[in-house]
């Protein structure tokens, strides 16, 4: 991808080592994420999305590794071994599933672009929480080099994370 393409966040053909945006919105650097745990990179490298939509779609082909009863997050594993945490909102675990609807269950396999989870921004905001979505490579240290796209608008076809396996 060339300099101008990167500057204008042009789409790049996805590969087995890429993660596409799970929700449409505005991509932000992890250092700007509104939660200290994610911002500090404690869970792993990644980025955030300020969502415009309310549907989480599969960012690659893989398996649902974890789906808590609170439905506020998904643990996904790509067929190439990337472990991804998608966490919807800040402190939304306390909502106990209110405002969330799972469209898959733990252990399900999925195709890239498949709908995985619906959430209500209005209900999250009414509960007093931020709707920012964290997209974190939880096994980043084992994956190799994790690079995130430049901040800007993203849609479901936008590559937001690229993993370069260690030699």
Radius of gyration: 15 Å
- Which parts are unreliable, with pLDDT below 50 for 5 consecutive residues or more? 1-14
Helix-strand category: mainly beta
How many domains? 1
Strand content: 35-45%
CATH fold description: Glucose Permease (Domain IIA)
Kindly state the mean pLDDT as a whole number? Answer: 91
Label this structure with key terms.
Glucose Permease (Domain IIA), 167 residues, 4 helices, disordered N terminus, mainly beta, eight-stranded antiparallel β-sheet
Describe the fold and architecture.
- The structure is a single chain.
- This protein has 167 residues and is mainly beta.
- The longest helix is centred in the C-terminal third of the chain and has 6 residues.
- The strands form three sheets. An eight-stranded antiparallel sheet has the order 9-5-6-7-11-3-2-13, with no helix packed on it. The chain has a three-stranded antiparallel sheet with strand order 1-14-12.
- The chain has a single domain, classed as Glucose Permease (Domain IIA).
């Amino acid at each position: 991808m060339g300099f101008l393409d990167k500057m204008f966040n042009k789409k790049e053909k996805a590969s087995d080592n890429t993660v596409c945006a799970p929700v449409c919105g505005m991509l932000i650097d992890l250092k700007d994420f509104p939660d200290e745990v994610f911002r500090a990179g404690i869970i792993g490298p990644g980025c955030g999305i300020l969502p415009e939509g309310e549907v989480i779609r599969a960012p690659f082909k893989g398996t649902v590794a974890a789906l808590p009863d609170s439905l506020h997050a998904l643990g996904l594993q790509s067929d190439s071994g990337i472990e991804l945490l998608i966490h919807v909102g800040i402190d939304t675990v306390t909502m106990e599933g209110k405002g969330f609807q799972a469209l898959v269950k733990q252990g399900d396999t999925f195709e890239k672009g498949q709908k995985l989870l619906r959430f209500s921004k209005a209900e999250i905001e009414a509960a007093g929480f931020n709707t920012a979505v964290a997209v974190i490579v939880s096994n980043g240290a084992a994956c190799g080099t994790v690079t995130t796209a430049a901040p800007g608008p993203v849609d479901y076809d936008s590559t937001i994370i690229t993993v370069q396996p260690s030699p």
